[in-house]
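By way of example, what follows is a protein record of this kind.
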Amino acid sequence: MPPAVMEARQVDALPTGKGWQYEPKWDGFRCLAVSHDGKVDLVGKSGKKLTRYFPEVAASLGRYPPPSHLVLDGELVVPLGDELSFDALQSRLHPAQSRIDRLSHETPAAFIVFDMLRTADGENIASAPLGERRRKLEAFFRAKDLPDVLRLSPAGRSRAEAEKWLARAGGGALDGVVAKRLDEPYRPGERAMLKVKCLRTADCVVGGFRYATGHEGTRERFVGSLLLGLFNASGKLDHVGFTSGIADDKRPALTRRLERLRGPGFTGRSPGGPSRWTTERSGAWEGVKPCLVAEVQYDHVTGDRFRHGTRFVRWRHDKSPRQCTLDQLRHEARPSKMTKSIAGRR
């Protein structure tokens, strides 16, 4: 069994001082690639195997000249043009093998590598300091006959450069920046790294809400989450995500306010059931007249939607709902030079 991956705990700012290595935090599936004499396993962060979903990655690694005993830590991604597509990546998690095989040819994946736990000749270097592991990883990438799906993730010791990466995070390629101690070994299963995400805010229209679960059969129900919308170029209100974490003492008054505003909500894309865009269970939602504007904090945008749930910041009584357009999010989808260089190495 391969070791559990070393994880990261979120902090508010990049660490300062000497002894740190900074790396981009890629927007993909974290994965250990374990190769043993042509047999390859791709193991996700949960411990579940991803091999069948990415056969082209496993096959390419399996063709590396034997004897090969590699263990690489990295991120599975799907390059599409100058960008990395999380949609295309998630489409691979499908029960039909025929669909997976087709997608593996139409939108082949890549494996961005940022650490090495075992070398091709079988040397276990997981207990070595990160600085030594990185040198051996870079030497591996200078070798001939390298599997064509592999990409070497940039890494550096300059905090200023890491700040530039962080400024580009949040739009379909980079998910933030990770900081690791150069003198530390690989620590499986521990949150021994630091991660920083670039948090931004947007002003959104409340187009609906869902009641909190767990109150079925009770006399009163309270709002559980606000459904957020932004106006598209056609003037339609598209659903873009949700915000929850509403304080208990605010729920009764907010529920009464929203219930008084019931009416047509989203006129464009509407909320659906469970999907990659929400962690909430499927359920009925209530539309409300588009007259409330909420400022929310978010960390990532994909396909004109918030990837994760957002955090409510404040009400914007000074802003007209019609001013809340998708243009607020469009700048997040720009490809970075870093993405272009990695996606182009095929």
The CA atoms of residues 279 and 304 lie 17 Å apart. The domain at 200-332 is CATH 2.40.50.140 (OB fold (Dihydrolipoamide Acetyltransferase, E2P)). The longest strand covers residues 200-211. Residues 130-141 form the longest helix (12 residues).
